[in-house]
Amino acid sequence: MFRKLGIVKEFLSVKNFRSKEALDAYQQEKLEDRLSSHGSVFYPNSRKLEDFPIINKKIFMENFEAINTVGIKKEEAFSVALASEESRNFSNKIGDISVGLSSGTSGSRGLFLVSEEESIRWAGYILKRMLPKPLLQQHKIAFFLRANSNLYESVNSRLIQFSFYDLLTPLEDHIELLNKTQPSILIAPAQVLRLLALSDRLEIYPKKIISVAEVLEEEDEVLIAQRFSQKVHQVYQCTEGFLAHTCEEGNLHLNEDRVYIEKEWIDKESGRFSPIITDFFRSSQPVIRYKLDDILVLEKEPCACGSVFTRIQKIEGRCDDILKVKDKKNESYLLFPDFVRRAIIRASDKVEEYAVEHKADGLHIYLQPLGLKDEVEKSLQKLYFEQGLEVLEHFYHPYQMGKLTDKRRRVKQL
User: Fold this and answer.
1) What pLDDT does 147 receive?
2) Looking at residues 313-342, what average pLDDT do you find?
3) C-alpha angle 176/182/186, rounded to 5°?
4) Distance of alpha carbon 292 from alpha carbon 275, whole angstroms
5) Looking at the predicted structure, is the pLDDT value of residue 245 above 90?
6) N or C: which end of the chain has fewer CB within 10 A?
7) Residue 305 falls within a domain, yes or no?
């Protein structure tokens, strides 16, 4: 009962900011609260953000025991998280702390801790931001992901029926259950949504489609939207926090009432940056000045929804997906993954699947159907010419579908 009341209280407290001045004042207040009361022996005792070190996943995990404030040992947390992964029972806790294991896009394992209070706050917030209107309707949520969590299960209530669909189970095995339960909200990684959209057996009519966990590419967004006659929304959620969501207009906004985000510019002219995040409310495992390796593209135009939260044009990929190449002057050049993706897609509307790996000997292109390699070659050569780049040697291979539990990365710098 108290848990449900807490979720309702959080739900009702979430508001939209229409004034930049009001948002700035709110953020400053929350930032001061966070810095002065983080309770972690790892971080300095200071109210100045610049006194805190910029950290990354490696530093965060190396200092797991110093950063967390609930006295949980790294070995114990890994043991509980791995046991959950193996048993596929994700309800295990250490006391009242939920423990999760994230493989991450980079493949390195990360641990996250969530207290009961944090779980309640997260549930109330995400329900307010992502539920279709009218808000008090009953909903069935179908959620596809590699691993479940007490955090996700926390949204269950009289109005919300949450069902976890395990990506370790073949996708075809889930179709019958989806048809039977008729979810009103479908949440899955982009590659899973694409496969569901292409299924002739699937007969569901969700009111909202939400892409999570990996880059949503334009061609997939169009396909999914047409198949289900719905806009494709996005949630930008990682183990470090709930960072962004799409508004009713379908535009992506940073959750600046939950996180303070500094920008480390990759290319200011094009609006590309990596976020450095400070979470206002994470207390069991404080997240302060944590740099993500994601590439976000800033959208400068205001949104018709009226929110003053920063708009993001797209999440382009990871910094280590940027191809390191040479221009015609033999100078180093950063070729962003989106340029490569667009070159392949514009080669032919018959391209079904592809992946690109930049290795020491050149560009390895995995293509389905492989018979389109001449068209792709022509399009890539055009890209090199337009960007003034030295031509890379190309190697073409048949495309092979990876595991759905692995986050899809179309373009990789190896």
Assistant:
1) 67
2) 87
3) 100
4) 6
5) yes
6) N
7) yes
3-state secondary structure of 255: coil
Distance CA 240, CA 225 (A): 29
**Do residue 254 and residue 386 come from a single domain?**
no
258 near 241, Cβ under 8 Å?
A: yes
How many CB atoms are closer than 10 A to CB 253?
A: 22
Give the SS3 label for residue 364.
strand
Environment class of 409 (CB within 10 Å of its CB; exposed 0-12, middle 13-18, buried 19+): buried
Is the omega angle on the peptide bond into residue 170 within 30 degrees of 0, that is, cis? no
Q: Are residues 270 and 380 in the same domain?
A: no
Answer yes or no: do 304 and 334 share one domain. Answer: no
Q: Are 296 and 283 in contact (CB under 8 A)?
A: no
**Sign of CA pseudo-dihedral 218, 223, 229, 234:** negative
Q: Say whether both 14 and 30 belong to one domain.
A: yes
Q: Does 226 have pLDDT greater than 60?
A: yes
Q: Which of 294, 319, 344 is the last residue of a domain?
A: 319
Contact in structure between 212 and 145 (CB atoms under 8 Å): yes
Beta carbons of 88 and 168 less than 8 angstroms apart: yes
In a domain, 14, yes or no: yes
Query: Using an 8 Å Cβ cutoff, are 123 and 71 in contact?
Result: no
Count Cβ neighbours within 10 Å for each residue of 158-187 and write b for 16 or more, e otherwise. eebbbbbbbbeeebeebbeebeeeebbbbb
Mean pLDDT over 190-218 rounds to 91
The separation between CA 223 and the C-alpha centre of its own chain, rounded to angstroms, equals 20
In DSSP notation, 270-318 reads TTEEEEEEEESS--SS---SEEP-EEEEEE-SPPTT---SPEEEEEEEE
